[in-house]
């Protein structure tokens, strides 16, 4: 393995270009079509099945642990019942069909078949060579899946591996910071980079009272001010969470090297901007409002 000193936060910047590319799946109308054909009628069930299928026919407890910020009550409404509708293998096949249709629609056939897409797939897969399995259940489960042959699907697969590798480490950082699931969501939204409260409550299964209770707890710790904005201490804590996550996630980017990380970030941003411009994400997804 080669290791190369990276500029500060280079790995995080690369992750920020790659992570949302995976997430185009969850907002795609193609998800409704492909999963509807399997017998799914509830979008929460579709999303939960799509992300957890690599773990096998798991129940709510496993998903609560690995997803961290979902309400167990919501999960128990759908898991393990979703596996009676379709097996994990069938869900994974439908997921890949969804991704194929979504990326062709958002990026266009020319970009999907471009040398740049093949280059991005090669770079991202090379970075995953240095990912580690221990204490990383979502990454490790996805690492057992075969790499798709087509470059745009291989890039999405590699982006998923890098996303879940960082995500698994992020949970350790949240635990270390003493942030429970709702506090983690509230404090992330307060940075201006997390999902809006409407989307958090609608997708994670929490009630407004849960959100308000977390706000009060964070205010009691001096992390939020009276208007719900991060205090100096709150900003410092969120910065430390991200820096802790960076430390746990540095291996794949060091392995890829500074030039490779810079190029993958450039390519990833280009694909992401194209996808976003084609309507990949809801306009009100991010923000404090």
UniProtKB/TrEMBL annotation:
Superkingdom of this protein's organism: Bacteria
InterPro entries: HTH_67
NCBIfam families cross-referenced by the UniProt entry: SCO6745_fam_HTH
UniProt name for this protein: SalK
Species for this entry: Streptomyces venezuelae (strain ATCC 10712 / CBS 650.69 / DSM 40230 / JCM 4526 / NBRC 13096 / PD 04745)
């Amino acid at each position: 393995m080669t290791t190369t000193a990276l500029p500060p936060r280079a790995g995080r910047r690369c992750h920020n270009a790659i992570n949302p590319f995976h997430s185009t799946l969850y907002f795609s109308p193609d998800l409704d079509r492909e999963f509807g054909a399997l017998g799914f009628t509830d979008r929460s069930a579709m999303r939960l099945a799509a992300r957890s299928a690599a773990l096998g026919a798991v129940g709510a407890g496993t998903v609560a642990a690995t997803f961290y910020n979902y309400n167990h009550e919501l999960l128990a409404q759908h898991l393990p019942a979703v596996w009676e509708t379709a097996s994990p293998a069938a869900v994974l096949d439908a997921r890949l069909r969804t991704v194929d249709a979504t990326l062709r629609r958002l990026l266009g056939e020319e970009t999907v078949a471009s040398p740049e897409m093949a280059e991005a797939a090669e770079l991202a897969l090379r970075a995953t060579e240095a990912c580690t399995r221990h204490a990383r259940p979502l990454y490790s489960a996805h690492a057992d899946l075969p790499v798709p042959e087509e470059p745009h699907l291989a890039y999405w697969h590699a982006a998923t591996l890098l996303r879940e590798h960082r995500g698994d480490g992020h949970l350790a950082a949240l635990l270390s910071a003493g942030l429970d699931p709702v506090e983690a969501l509230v404090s992330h939204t307060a940075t201006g980079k997390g999902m809006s409260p409407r989307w958090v409550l609608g997708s994670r299964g929490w009630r407004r009272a849960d959100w308000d209770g977390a706000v009060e707890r964070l205010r009691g710790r001096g992390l939020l001010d009276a208007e719900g904005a991060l205090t100096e201490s709150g900003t410092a804590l969120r910065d430390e969470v991200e820096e802790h996550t960076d430390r746990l996630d540095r291996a794949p980017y060091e392995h890829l090297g500074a030039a490779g990380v810079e190029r993958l970030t450039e390519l990833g941003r280009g694909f992401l901007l194209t996808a976003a411009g084609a309507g990949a994400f809801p306009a009100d997804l991010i923000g404090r409002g």
